[in-house]
Design goal:
This protein is of the alpha/beta class and 430 residues long. It folds into three domains: 161 residues, 3-Layer(aba) Sandwich (Adenylosuccinate Synthetase, Chain A, domain 1); 92 residues, Adenylosuccinate Synthetase, subunit A, domain 2 (Orthogonal Bundle); 164 residues, Adenylosuccinate Synthetase, subunit A, domain 3 (Adenylosuccinate Synthetase, Chain A, domain 3, Alpha-Beta Complex), CATH 3.90.170.10. The protein is 30% helix and 20% strand. It contains twelve helices and 20 strands. The chain has a ten-stranded mixed beta sheet with strand order 9-7-5-2-10-1-11-15-19-20, with helices on both faces. Strands 14, 16, 17 and 18 form a four-stranded mixed beta sheet that branches. A two-stranded antiparallel ribbon has the order 3-4. A hairpin with a 2-residue loop joins strand 3 and strand 4. The termini are close together. The structure holds guanosine-5'-diphosphate, 6-O-phosphoryl inosine monophosphate and magnesium ion. The site of 6-O-phosphoryl inosine monophosphate has 23 residues, from helix 4.
């Protein structure tokens, strides 16, 4: 039996939460390995909606161990709010069902503020971040001045660590005309919130090693998508972490062979929140229709998502970069009722064909999509749970995507509801 890593193959919001929740029925441990509360993963179980940002999607299904890995940046205040909100919905969260890596770095209140100050000053060049302080927190991590979960255990030793961190930040803040942060007040705030995190804090690498030795099945849950990866995405319009499957190992503290099967989640069309290139974007009625049918509004910020046709060239590239074994194609039902569908098979730049999206920012903004047209279907795929329930044209659409992206479809999702999935191949079977 293989452990499975789930990653987004586009610009996020592909439906990772729904698929991770569905797969978690077959898993023992579910691990988040990067990102933070910039993620918004929505689960619908018997009509009840659960919105997760920091907690692994496995938490909603009882009897599993959820892990927040060292690769995640944790805002302790957002964590506390999310735990309370989910407990209010009847989800059990305690140190048996949840573990947090003691070596994970924290997002502090001034990180969010800096994120928003920078975006506000960037004018047309802004990234369109979620404003949650993700970038500034990762910068402090690689800058070796971050406060980590384990530091909360030694409150008396926080002083010099905060001084080092604030020497950097107060200089930056002065440049923005923002008030300096007082180290004593921040230390007090941290002492106040420590109790919300520390009961869960532990060396999760050891928990995962023991799970592996006991033959437990581990599911790694990615956030964002490969096109938002800090190395491989549409830089600089990306997030500040590696979102590819390779990060599952480094961001959890396990070896690369711990992931036996990588499942990429792909939406049957494309969406993007925030700025940056989007070759198949539709700024017309069709784009509007996709957005309305797909309820394409961000879970985290409520922003309208930009919509466009499925970009097979870009997904093919994402799948190669992340080493993907199979995909889950989601939101097929959103395409119900279109007369014709288009799929991007490659690009053109100054009259020359391109089979991939090159890395240059200026080139990415200029490529023109090359489309293949396919007939749509008049029947419904909504709620389908078997291949036989799909209209013939929908089957052809899925099969053609499979060919174009050079990767098999393991699952198809046909509604937001937990059980509305067509299983073609069990990822845990390897
Ligand atoms: P994630 O960030 O990848 O977990 O995706 P989000 O939860 O942000 O966005 C996906 C949205 O689509 C959520 O509101 C889901 O409930 C919904 N969704 C997931 N799968 C399907 C599907 O197959 N059909 C439809 N109509 N909605 C879906
Ligand atoms: P899930 O896990 C979609 C986007 C932001 C912005 C860029 C950088 O729900 O798929 P950041 O706040 O990370 O510095 O923002 O990345 N972004 C997402 N877009 N889904 C997400 O997560 C995202 N997380 C970040 O909109 O363009
Ligand atoms: Mg999301």
């Amino acid at each position: 039996m293989a452990n499975v890593a789930v990653v987004g193959a586009q610009w996020g919001d592909e439906g990772k939460g729904k698929i991770v929740d569905w797969l978690s029925a077959r898993a023992d441990v579910v691990v988040r390995f990067q990102g933070g509360h910039n993620a918004g993963h929505t689960l619908v179980v018997d009509g009840k909606v659960y919105k997760l940002s920091l907690l692994p999607s496995g938490i909603v299904r009882g009897g599993k161990v959820s892990v927040i890995g060292n690769g995640v940046v944790i805002d302790p205040f957002a964590f506390k709010d999310e735990v309370e909100r989910l407990r209010g919905q009847g989800v059990r969260i305690d140190p048996v069902s949840l573990a947090i890596a003691e070596n994970a770095c924290l997002i502090l209140p001034f990180h969010g503020e800096l994120d928003r100050l920078r975006e506000g000053a960037a004018g047309a060049g802004k990234i369109g971040t979620t404003g949650r302080g993700i970038g500034p927190a990762y910068e402090d991590k690689v800058g070796r001045r971050a406060i980590r979960v384990a530091d909360l255990r030694s409150p008396d030793a926080l002083g010099p660590k905060l001084d080092r961190l604030l020497t950097h930040h107060n200089a930056l803040r002065a440049g923005f005309g923002a008030k300096a942060i007082d180290a004593d007040a921040l230390a007090e705030e941290l002492r106040g919130i420590a109790g919300a995190l520390l009961p869960y804090a532990q060396p999760v690498w050891r928990l995962l090693d023991e799970a592996r030795k006991a033959g437990k099945r581990i599911l790694y849950e990615g956030a964002q998508g490969v096109l938002l990866d800090v190395d491989h995405g549409t830089y600089p319009f990306v997030t500040s972490s590696n979102t590819v499957a390779g990060q599952a190992a480094a961001g959890a503290g396990v070896g690369p062979s711990s992931v036996g099967y990588t499942l990429a989640i792909c939406k049957a069309y494309t969406t993007r929140v925030g700025s940056g290139p989007f070759p198949t974007e539709l700024e017309d009625e069709t784009g509007q229709r996709l957005g309305e049918r797909g309820h394409e509004f961000g879970t985290v910020t409520g922003r309208k998502r930009r919509c466009g046709w499925f970009d097979a060239a870009l997904v093919r590239q994402s799948l190669k970069i992340s080493g993907v074994d199979g995909i889950a194609l989601t939101k097929l039902d959103v395409l119900d009722g279109f007369d014709t569908l288009k799929v991007c098979t490659g690009y053109e730049l100054d009259g020359e064909p391109l089979d991939h999206l090159p890395s240059g920012e200026e080139i990415q903004a200029r490529v023109q999509p090359v489309y293949e047209e396919m007939p749509g279907w008049s029947g419904s795929t909504a709620g389908a749970r078997s291949w036989a329930d799909l209209p013939a044209e929908a089957v052809k659409y899925v099969r053609r995507i499979e060919e174009l992206i050079d990767c098999p479809v393991a699952l198809v999702s046909t509604s937001p509801e937990r059980e509305d999935v067509i299983l073609m191949r069990d990822p845990f079977a390897g």
